[in-house]
Structure formats: C-alpha cells, structure tokens
Amino acid sequence: MLMLVGMIGLSACEKAVLDEQQQEEKKPLEGNVIIRTSMYNIVPFETRAVQSVADFSSTLEFVLYQNGTKVKAVTQLKKSDSNYGQVGITLEPGTYKLLVLAHSSIGGNPSVANPESIQFTNSDGYSDTFYYYDDIEVTAEQTTYDVTLQRATSMVRIIIQDEIPFNVQRIRLYYEGESGVFNAVTGMGGTTNSKQTIWYNAMGQTAPLTLCAYTFLRNETGSLNMTITAYGNDASDVIAEKELTNIPMKNHMVTEYRGNLFAAPTTDASFNLTAETGWEVYQQLTF
Fold first, then answer.
1. Taking the model in full, what pTM does it have?
2. Which residues pair with 85 in a beta bridge?
3. Contact 113, 141 (CB under 8 A)
C-alpha cells in the first residue's frame, strides 16, 4: 500500500474552491497503491495552517509512467468525487515515475502523455498549479510516502486602485513571453512562448479590482509583456489601456502591480511594481 502526503502553498490571489454542500461519505479504496494528499496553506504567505487539498484546487491528476510510457492516469474532480484527495490504484510491483498535479484550470484536463511537455488548455487562462514528480517503488507490501508538492507557476497580480467607470464592461489582460507548457522533469516551463488573453467581467465591480495571470517560467528568472485594456460596449470602444513591458518574474514568485488605470488622459495611467512572494523576497520597483 502506498500513501502520499503533499504539502503546498496558496497564494493571496488564489480563491479557495469550496462546495456549498458537504460531499458524500468517502468510499472504500481498492488497489495495492493508495495515494493520499494533504497540504499546508500559506495565507497571507507568512502564516502556515494545515488545510485540505479540496480547499485550494478543483482537479487532481495522478499519473504513473514506466519505461517512458504512461501506464495509469486518474483524474479527480472535487465537485463529483467523494474521495477527492485520495485514490486507490492497482499496479504490478516495480519502479514507476509518479506525477501528481493539483490545479483549478477550467479549460479542461492537461495533456500528460509526456511529463516533459504538460500542456494546459489556455482558452480561459491558467490557474495556480502544483506538482510532484519522482520515482516510487511499488511492492506487494504496504508502502507509505510523504510527498511535498511544489509550486509550478509564477504569477502577475494587477490591482486597479481607481474607481471603475460605469461604462466599463470588460477588462482584458493580454500577455506574452515565458511558457504555457510545463516540464515536470526539470520543474520549468517548456520552450514554447505563451500568448495568453484573459477576459474579466467589469460590470458592477468596485475598486480595488484584482486581476491575476499565471505562467510557467523557462528559467529561474524571466519577464512578461502585458497590456491591460478596458472596453465599453464592443472591441472598438477602448476606454483605457496600459502597457507593462519587461515585467520582472522569478520562479514561484508573485509580481504585483498596483495603481490607477482610468486616470485622465489615459496616458497618465500609472502602476507601481512590487514583488510579493511567500517563498522569497525578490525586489521592489517603481516607475
């Protein structure tokens, strides 16, 4: 029997994924491999508290590889799986590579056939993602593993401080650079540059308004270019726009811009850049 216990952090921009109703009583698990997950929640980065895996993700992927080939994959959805966070799997004794992914992507399950090229559907933006990837030895005897899931993503957090005009209906974040593919073997992003668009409903929103964008860095440090655009009735009705170039990023770090978008004229819109992270101090910049 194999038991895994994972520990991860939750960023301040994360939204806990909670059900309004209690889940059904957990069902007995079958198989010679039992995988269980738990984590540490860090809110607001400095304070640790033990949390359930269900509090920070909506989807779990358990994937096992042998000799470079995927041999078993189980996807759990929090909304429908009463055993969310633990799974039973039957495997022949031997050495396997185990991949565990925790995420809240609403664009569908990632492709996991190759652990060096894990591709998420990006039509609705990426989510904070955590992973574990290493060898495990499966035997006929009960085996217990304590596994720590590491954060795979880096994030840009935009905080718009001035009031949102009544005629603003949508805000778009468009950013490019770094990667939309994750390599679990190296723990870095893939070689493909990411071009990502995220739309936010701005109707009825009040300041401060927080918008988040995730990416996988290809190296320990990197950069993104981002355009923030506020629209009225249609795509031709641009109310405000701000370009942020060469946003400094560091692996597993939050880079935060805080400022005014709707200053008049639009060219006066300004943002202050700070680097906020629960994992390490990076830098503070003002422009």
1. 0.81
2. none
3. no
- CA-based nearest residue to 182, from 120, 103, 96, 109: 120
If DSSP codes are grouped into helix, strand and coil, which group holds residue 145? coil
Distant-in-sequence, close-in-space partners of 201: CB < 8 Å, separation ≥ 6: 169, 170
Q: How far apart are the C-alpha atoms of 107 and 121, rounded to whole Å? A: 5
Q: Are strands 254-260 and 154-160 parallel, antiparallel or unpaired?
A: parallel
Half-sphere exposure of 50 (CA within 13 A, CB side): 4
Block means of pLDDT (10 residues each) for the chain, length 287 residues? 40 47 62 60 39 76 95 92 84 94 83 93 76 90 74 88 94 91 94 85 93 92 94 94 91 86 61 49 37
Amino acid at 15: K
The helix (H) or strand (E) run that includes residue 246 is strand 238-250
Q: Is the dihedral of CA 208, 152, 216, 125 positive or negative?
A: negative
Q: How far apart are alpha carbons 276 and 253 in whole angstroms?
A: 7
